[in-house]
Amino acid sequence: MITNKDLSFLKAIVGEQFVSTGESVLNLHSHDESYHAPVLPDVVLWPHNTDEVSRIARYAFQRKIPITGWGVGTSLEGNPIPVRHGIVIDFQQMQRVISVRPEDFQVDVEAGVIYKDLNKMLSRHGLFFPPDPGASATIGGMIGNNASGIRTVKYGATKDHILRLAVVLPGGEVIRIGNRARKTSSGYDLIHLFAGSEGTLGLVTEATLKLAGIPANFMALRVTFTKIKNATDTVFKVMSSGFSPAALEFLDSNVIGVLNRDRNLSMEEQPTLLMEFNGFSEEGLKAEMAYIEEICSENGSTFIDKGIGRTERDRLWEMRHLTFESIKRQHPGLLPLIMDVVVPLSGYSNMVSFIKKEVRELQAYVFGHAGDGNIHVIVMDEPTDNRRWSRVDEAHRRIVGQALALEGSCTGEHGVGIGKRSFLPDEHGSSLELMKQIKKLIDPEELFNPGKLFI
Ligand SMILES: Cc1cc2nc3c(=O)[nH]c(=O)nc-3n(C[C@H](O)[C@H](O)[C@H](O)COP(=O)(O)OP(=O)(O)OC[C@H]3O[C@@H](n4cnc5c(N)ncnc54)[C@H](O)[C@@H]3O)c2cc1C
Questions:
Q1: 369-394: pLDDT as tens digits
Q2: At 204, phi and psi to the nearest 5?
Q3: Does residue 335 surpass a pLDDT of 90?
Q4: CA angle 298, 302, 303 (to 5 degrees)
Q5: How many angstroms separate the CA atoms of 127 and 133, rounded?
Q6: Mean per-residue pLDDT, 256-271
Q7: Confidence category of residue 365, pLDDT binned at 50, 70, 90
Q8: Nearest residue (CA) to ligand 1, atom 27
Q9: How many angstroms separate the alpha carbon of residue 412 from the centre of ligand 1?
Q10: Sign of the dihedral defined by the CA atoms of residues 411, 416, 421, 427, in that order
Q11: CA 75 / ligand 1 centre spacing (Å)
Q12: Which of 72, 74, 374 to probe ligand 1 with, by most ligand atoms within 8 A of CB?
C-alpha cells in the first residue's frame, strides 16, 4: 500500500506533475490489448532519466513496493498489467535519441522511444531498425517482450539488434552491459537474458541498437490457393528457393473475408500468402518474381496480384497491417484470445491444419509470420461466459500441446505475461527451475513485474 509519505518521496524524485494517482491515469495503466482482467496500480510515475529510475527502484526496494515497467501497453498477454498493484513506471518522458552513428549502423536511444518514430528519423540516414511488431510500440517494451514481426524472417527479432543496454536492477543498481562491437564471445550473454524477460529482472533505460540499410527496391506478391495445404507447403518451397524473403505471411480465408467486409475490399476469399522481396534493379526483381510465381503455380496457386517498387509493396501489404483492428471491429462486445505458437518450418503445414480442425466451431482467424514458422490464432469470444470460454481455452491448450510435440514454442513473439504461464513447465521442463533461480538471484523480493512468467 502506497502512503502519502511514499508519494511525497516519489514526487521529490521525478517532480510533482510526473506522479499521478488520478483515476483515468490508473485505468489507462491497468490493462493491455488482451482479454486479461485489468488491475489498477497505486501510482504511475514518469521518470526522466536512468538516475531517477534507479532512485525509484532503491526506494521501492526499501519499502517492498512492486514496480512494473510500461511502454505503451500494446502487449497481448497481460505482460504490463500491474497484478500486485504498486508503482507503474511509464517511460513516455524518456524518448531521447541520444546519438546516431551511421558509420557504425548504430543508434543510442532511451527506452521510451517509439520505434516507428525512430525509423522515420533514421530514414534520413538511409537506415532503419528492422523489428516491426506493427503497433506503435516503445523500444523498452519491444526489448521486454523480445518483439518481432513481419521482417523477422530476414532480419531477426529485437534481441538480435541489441548491442548495449543500461538496466536498473531491483534495489536501484544500474548496470551497463554489452559493447559497440558487432560480435563478442566475452562472458555470459546478459543482453539476451534481459531481452524477453518482460521487465521481471530489470528496467531497461537506454539501449544501443543495431541498424540495417534501407533496401534500394521492393517487390511484393499476394498469392491465393484453393487449399490451405498448398499455401503452407509453398512456404517451405519459397524459403528453400535461394531467394531470401523480407516478409512471408500466411492468412486463412476467414482473415481475408473479415478484411473484405471491414474495409470494403474484394480480395479472393482463399488461403493466401503475402510476400516481400528486396533487391536493386527492376530487371533483377522481375526475374525473381517470375521464379517465385513459378514455385507458387507448381504448388496450386489460383490468383496472383503483384508489383515492383515501394508504392506497389505498400498497396499489397496495407491490408496485413489492418488485420487485428478489422477482426476486433467486426466482433463488437467480444474479446480476443490470441495464440502465438511457433514451430520448425517442416511442421508448419501440420500445425496449420491441426489448428484449423481445432477451431472450426469457434470465431477464429488464423494467420502469421509463416517464414519463421509463427502462427497467430485470434479467437473472438466472451471471457466472462465460462462455458464458451472453456472451449476456447481447451482449443488453446491442445494447439500449444501440438506445437510442443512438433518441438516448437507456446509463444513466438508476444511473450508469456499472464496468458502463457501455464505452458512453461511443459515447454521448459527442469530448466524452468533455473529460470526461477535466476529471478530469485536478481529480484529476491519479487518486486519487478511480479506475477508474470511463473505460476
Ligand atoms: C495490433 C497489434 C499488433 C501486434 N503485432 C505484433 C507483432 O507482429 N509482433 C510482436 O512481437 N508483437 C506484436 N504486438 C504486441 C506488442 O505490440 C509488442 O509486444 C510490443 O513490443 C509491446 O511494446 P509496448 O511499448 O506496448 O510495451 P508494453 O506492452 O507496455 O510492455 C511490454 C513488456 O515490457 C515491459 N517493459 C516495458 N518497458 C520496459 C522497460 N523500459 N524495461 C523493461 N521492461 C519494460 C512491460 O512491463 C511488459 O512486460 C502487437 C500488438 C498489437 C496491439
A1: 999 999 999 999 999 999 999 999 99
A2: -75, 130
A3: yes
A4: 115
A5: 18
A6: 97
A7: very high
A8: 141
A9: 13
A10: positive
A11: 4
A12: 74
Which tens digit of pLDDT belongs to each residue from 4-50? Answer: 999 999 999 999 999 999 999 999 999 999 999 999 999 999 999 99
How far is residue 39 CA from its own chain's centroid?
Answer: 22
- Rounded to the nearest whole angstrom, what is the distance from the C-alpha of residue 257 to the centroid of ligand 1? 28
Nearest atom in ligand 1 to 417's CA: 49
Atom nearest to 412 CA in ligand 1: 11
Ligand 1: does its nearest atom lie under 6 Å from the Cβ of 80?
yes
What pTM does this model have? 0.97
> For ligand 1, what atom is nearest to the CA of residue 144?
34
Query: Does residue 55 line the site of ligand 1, with CB under 6 A?
Result: no
With a 6 Å cutoff on the Cβ, whether 95 touches ligand 1 is no
Which protein residue's CA is at the shortest distance from atom 52 of ligand 1?
135
Q: Is the distance from CB of 14 to CB of 47 less than 8 angstroms?
A: yes
Q: What is the mean pLDDT of residues 232-247?
A: 94
Cell of 123: 530514414
Q: From the CB of residue 181, how many other CB atoms can be counted at a distance below 10 Å?
A: 10
SS (H, E, C) the chain: CCCHHHHHHHHHHHCHHHEECCHHHHHHCCCCCCCCCCCCCCEEECCCCHHHHHHHHHHHHHHCCCEEEECCCCCCCCCCCCCCCCEEEEHHHCCCEEEEEHHHCEEEEECCCEHHHHHHHHHHHCEECCCCCCCCCEHHHHHHHCCCCCCHHHHCCHHHHEEEEEEECCCCCEEEEECCCCCCCCCCCHHHHHCCCCCCCCEEEEEEEECEECCCEEEEEEEEECCHHHHHHHHHHHHCCCCCCCEEEEECHHHHHHHHHHHCCCCCCCCEEEEEEEECCHHHHHHHHHHHHHHHHHCCEEEEEEEECHHHHHHHHHHHHCHHHHHHHCCCCCEEEEEECECCHHHHHHHHHHHHHHCCCCCEEEEECHHHCECEEEEEECCCCHHHHHHHHHHHHHHHHHHHHCCCECECCCCCCCCCHHHHHHHHCCHHHHHHHHHHHHCCCCCECCCCCCC
138 lines ligand 1 (CB under 6 A): yes
Q: Which atom of ligand 1 is nearest to the CA of 324?
A: 1
The total number of residues shown for the chain amounts to 455
Indicate if ligand 1 lies below 6 Å from the C-beta of 158: no
Grid coordinates representing 372?
519463421
